[in-house]
Amino acid sequence: MEAGRYEVLAAVGEGASGRVFKARETGGCQRLVALKKVRVLEQMEEGVPAFVIREVGLLRKLEAFDHPNVVKLLDVSVEVENQTPELTLVFEYVDQDLCAFLASVAETGLSRGKIKDIMLQLLRGLDFLHTNMLVHRDLKPQNVLVSSHGEIKIADFGLARIYSHHMALTPIVSLNLGLNWVKVKSHIALRLESN
Q: What sort of enzyme, by top EC class, is this (predicted)?
């Protein structure tokens, strides 16, 4: 990524590992992108944090499939800012996360059809990940993005892991509910089929 290729428009959020910005490409199609700037602290003897290497590696593995319900990693670069190395991940820009989307819903709530559409897209994304032997491990409303066109995209693969059929997976997923994920997925699938 060349310096000056993106014009930062606004700060979107900040986490423990860095900041996210809404930006626009300065040349070509001038599409909107999300820049995730990850601080690589000087006192870190190991270099780039493992979760960043994992996230980039997994997204690079998945990019060949171009799944509509997984956020796309467009570019990666390292820049030095104030003598501190900073890794920049460039993602497709998606308007909001599921939390913001749900907060903007009218008091009457979402229609049954809209709820089914959101869940179907989310399950398609999860099915794609699991079919490709990948477990997200941090699925929450802040990591589910919603575009202005109603497209659902799973994001933030910092805790994700690749698994094999020989690995033991725990049946409990900590989604603040502690529910058996197999029962939840089966229940949702049955409900979608019956409606």
A: transferase
Q: Which residues are CB-neighbours of 124 under 8 A, at least 6 positions away?
A: 69
Cut 0.85: pTM above it: no
DSSP letter for 4, please: T
Active site residue 127: no
Tokens of 7: 């014009």
Residue 43 in tokens: 């006192």
Q: What is the dihedral of CA 23, 26, 28, 30, to 10 degrees?
A: 30
Is residue 51 a contact partner of residue 159, using CB atoms and an 8 Å limit?
Answer: yes
Q: What is the pLDDT of residues 64-114, one digit of tens each?
A: 888 999 999 999 988 777 777 788 999 999 999 999 999 999 999 999 999
Kindly state the tokens that stand for 101.
Answer: 């989307």
Provide the token pair at 59.
């997204």
Nearest to 157 by CA among 70, 88, 75: 70
Q: Is 36 annotated as a binding residue?
A: yes
Q: Which residue in 66, 95, 138, 156 is the catalytic one?
A: 138
Report all structural domains of the chain as residue ranges with CATH numbers, in order of start.
6-92 (3.30.200.20), 96-194 (1.10.510.10)
CA distances, 142 to each of 12, 112, 113, 155 (Å):
12, 22, 22, 9
